[in-house]
Amino acid sequence: MKSVRPILKIAKHLIFPAIVLAVVLWYILPVHFLRGLDPEKVKTIDLFDGHTGYQMDVTDPKLISEIVENVQSRSFKKVRGKDGISFIEMGYRFRMLFLDDKGNELARLILENSDTVRKDPFYYRTEEGGLCSDLLWKLIREKFHYEY
Questions:
Q1: Where do the domains of the chain lie?
Q2: Which long-range contacts (CB under 8 A, 24 or more apart) does 137-142 make?
Q3: CATH 2.40.50 matches 31-144
Q4: Staple 68 to which of 19, 39, 48, 80, CB 3.0 to 4.6 Å?
Q5: For residue 125, what pLDDT is reported?
Q6: What pLDDT shows up at residue 4?
């Protein structure tokens, strides 16, 4: 029985700090969205504007590629503090469903504004800015002749 105690003591002193370190690294390391999503496999982006209620399908391969590559090219970090928690939030700016040629969902992304993405339960912000929210807003305005 004495030989078990040193093992437990070592485990307690090594495993707990390793778990804490892993959680801290997971929380602070940057995230890349739509990683591994091939723009050529996306045939449709189901775009929903949460402010106006308008929905449209983006099927132009050039636009699809531009949107996917725009998001893929940015790194994001979790927003810290109470403003970084999203699972109790209702509504959003743009919801995008990336669909293949059979209508299967390849990915889903919620864009809150030009620098923030929501992936429950967190908000993620890019310091690089310039997410494609202006392009998405332009597409909605042109399709529905909507003036804000």
A1: 1-30, 31-144
A2: 137/49, 139/47, 139/56, 139/58, 139/63, 140/47, 140/49, 140/52, 140/54, 140/56
A3: no
A4: 39
A5: 92
A6: 60
